[in-house]
Structure of Integrase:
Amino acid sequence: MALSDTAIRKAKPADKQIKLTDGAGLYLLLTPGGSRWWRFDYRYLGKRKTLSMGTYPDTSLADARAKRDDARKLLAAGVDPSEHRKASRATRVERAANSFEVVAREWLAKRDWVDAYKVKVTGWLENDVFPWLGSSAVADLTAPDFLRMARRVEDRGAIESAHRILQNCGQIMRYAIATGRAERNPVADLKGALPPSPERHHSAITDPAAVGGLLRAIDAYAGTPVTRCALQLAPLLFVRPGELRHAEWSEIDLDVAEWNIPGEKMKMGQPHLVPLSSQAVAILQELHPLTGGGRYVFPSARSPKRPMSNNAVLAALRRMGFEKGEMSGHGFRAMARTILDETLQFRPDYIEHQLAHAVRDPNGRAYNRTAHLSERRKMMQAWADYLDALKADTRTVIPFKRTGSG
């Protein structure tokens, strides 16, 4: 006789277990302690087996019957319900262990970014990615999954953030591939799917106090010595990023403290001379034992026959936590131009000439590379000394007093 909810509720515990049969192998086991356990007995390959179906009333009579019917369908298909349950549980455990959120947090833990930047990326993932994709198996995610997530960010007007979040997701997927959790990176299929970020001028830090913080962060940079030296020289020399990374030892004379850049490397096609401050010379002397045996001052990490990547300095700034809208590789030029003019009050034509801009004399002739060399040499040393003062003063910034006619 089939069970009913009334019969189950009226059943009283006894000294021994009571078996309340429903039919087709399903029964309720009433224990002396009052617990009510659903069980399903069946035979598979000639062996008697029992499958637990939950407890009453958490699992209702109707639910228990539905589970029994599902188990009987598996048996009819030649599948052992117990083994099927084990396999399903193992799959769920594996999916949970390889979910996008698990992989992403593992990837995050391996980033040696400064704390502020790691907090920002974590916030993006927790607020904009994990609620939609976090529980999905990383191997099952598709390009449309990531695009729908990014569209939500785009819809609130944060187009640049949408690009940055997709970039982080792509890095996470590449990590998943490297660790055997995924076979391909669907984010790579989304190139051009989002509208481009609004164009911005090269961002730059020009507030002296903030410059001091940037310089201290550069000195504490935990990346390769070559990249750290490039970062340290970037504010001292304020050349274009491409000119810095293509620097060759044959162009640099440490004895006379000069860097002669040939015209073919310059934007304007004219040779350019960069006076080297004592601080710049010291950095190059420190770097020489590492790269002085090769062609490039800043060789690629992959091949000494190539210069470092055009993204190396920019990537290092991002790694230190300086955002795209805050500081760029070109930003060191704007920093120098602004402070040399407004704070240190050097003549604009000295500054523009040192920036390798198209400065002409009153007769319309372009200055040659040695024009105002003595004054520019003084300016470059005063600039380096001023940067040292900013870096040393962690509390406030006092006006720099310049000596001489500079």
In short: The chain is about 45% helix and 10% strand.
